[in-house]
């Protein structure tokens, strides 16, 4: 578990699960409700705390493509 410098957010990283925001003091807590991410291209964003977490890797998975 990593506290972020501002003290308003805690990030948890586990190799078997991925990464998630464990605790945040933002009003809506959308970032907390996102849950675990571990596949390339998945992101967690917390605008009030100005945090962006993105999983990078060799291949991204898309659920839709638009032309």
Helix content range: under 10%
Rg over C-alpha atoms, rounded to the nearest angstrom: 13 Å
Order of strands, main sheet, comes to 1-2-3
Average pLDDT score: 84
Uncertain regions spanning at least 5 consecutive residues = none
Number of strands: 5
Structural commentary:
- Helix content is 7%, strand content 34%.
- By secondary structure, it is mainly beta.
- The strands form two sheets. A three-stranded antiparallel β-sheet has the order 1-2-3. It has a two-stranded antiparallel ribbon with strand order 4-5.
- Strand 2 and strand 3 (18-24) form a beta hairpin.
- The longest helix has 5 residues, at 30-34.
- It is globular and about 40 Å long.
- The relative contact order is 0.22.
Tell me the layout of helices and strands:
Layout: E1 2-3, E2 9-14, E3 18-24, H1 30-34, E4 43-46, E5 51-54
Antiparallel strand pairs: 1-2, 2-3, 4-5
Primary descriptors:
single chain; 67 residues; mainly beta; three-stranded antiparallel beta sheet; two-stranded antiparallel ribbon; 5 strands
Brief write-up:
The chain is mainly β and 67 residues long. It has one helix and five strands.
């Amino acid at each position: 578990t990593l506290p972020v410098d501002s003290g308003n957010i805690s990030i948890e990283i586990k190799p078997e699960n991925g990464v998630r925001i464990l605790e945040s003091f933002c009003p809506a807590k959308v970032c907390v409700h996102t849950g675990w991410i571990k596949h390339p291209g998945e992101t967690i964003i917390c605008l009030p705390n100005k945090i962006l977490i993105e999983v990078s890797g060799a291949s991204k998975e898309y659920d839709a493509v638009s032309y």
